[in-house]
Amino acid sequence: MKKRKTLQDLTIKDNFMFGAVMSVEENCKGFLEMVLGFPIARVVVSKEKSMIYHPEYKGVRLDIYAEDAKHTHYNVEMQVRRKKELGKRSRYYHSQIVMEALESGEDYDTLPATFVIFVCDFDPFDKKRYCYTFRNICEEDPNVKLEDDSCTIFLSTKGENEDEVSQELVRFLKFVTADLKESEMDFGDGLVQKFQKTIRQIKTDREMGERYMIFEEMLREEKQEGREEGRLEATQEAVLELLKESGEIPCELQEKIRNLENLETLKALLKLAARADSLRAFEEKAEEYFNSEDKE
């Protein structure tokens, strides 16, 4: 069994620690200035949006949402494992920021500039670059820009083009990919030193320890719920597949089966479907199971 990490085991690439470090506004400001290459007057980190619910991750997940003095919005995410459709996920994050602005009564011409930044402990495009920056341009003429004020950046710890990016960025990414022991060494970088100092403070903070325990428990519950939901869906589909062998399944019956949320009841229906000679025979015997579910 994989050993559960304690707060003392975390490095900056662990989501909880990354969120805690970047929730310190000076740290977030320093990070954004390093990545973007221009000064930022002031950064406000939206702490209530650090724990969000969205379609891909049903439960708790740490992201960094920030806004600067010019109303520019930033979404930063630590990404340790390679996942599919990063491009579509970045589009989702941009749209969420825009939709929130529209809901607050903003006109299109006042929509904020948006930056979505992924810090990846892998190479998302396998081109050995430390940084991949995407903006909307015209395919027919790359000199024509859409100027929609959206930008997506992928940072990679696996880059090899040190002469094309700042040394500050390279040192930061080496810090990100370091293991626990290595992460405590001197990287010769002022920003990394700030992050290291913050991490040491977090690890000695009793309240942060309690928050981490709650965070871990929520993640465990989310994973358990995900496994249970997966078993429910698989059993529902198994019942329907068996019934299809007896003919076309009425929509009402399909809906009843898909609405069942009791795994034991579904298992009983699976056995019933395997034995039933016809859809009518199944429906007659299954009615008592549906009725018992309605009463609960």
Word description of this protein:
By secondary structure, the chain is of the alpha/beta class. It folds into two domains: 7-204; 229-295. 48% of the residues lie in helices and 11% in strands. The chain has nine helices and six strands. The protein has helices spanning 15-22, 25-36, 86-103, 167-177, 190-203, 206-244, 251-259, 263-275, 279-295, and strands at 43-45, 64-68, 73-79, 114-120, 131-134, 150-156. The chain has a six-stranded mixed beta sheet, sandwiched between helices. The longest helix is centred in the C-terminal third of the chain and has 39 residues, at 206-244. The protein is elongated, with a radius of gyration of 25 Å. This is Transposase/invertase (TIGR01784 family). It comes from Blautia caecimuris. Pfam families: PDDEXK_2. InterPro entries: RpnA.
Per DSSP E runs of 2 or more residues, the count of β-strands stands at 6
Question: Which structural class do the helices and strands define?
Answer: alpha/beta
How helical, in percent, are the residues?
A: 40-55%
Q: Sketch the major β-sheet.
A: 6 strands, mixed
| End-to-end distance | 37 Å
> Which strand order do you get reading across the main beta sheet?
1-2-3-4-6-5
Structural domains: how many: 2
Q: Name the helix and strand elements from N-terminus to C-terminus, one letter apiece.
A: HHEEEHEEEHHHHHH
DSSP strand content? 5-15%
| Chain oligomer state | single chain
Helix segment count? 9
Shape: elongated
Protein name: Transposase/invertase (TIGR01784 family)
Organism: Blautia caecimuris
Pfam family, one: PDDEXK_2
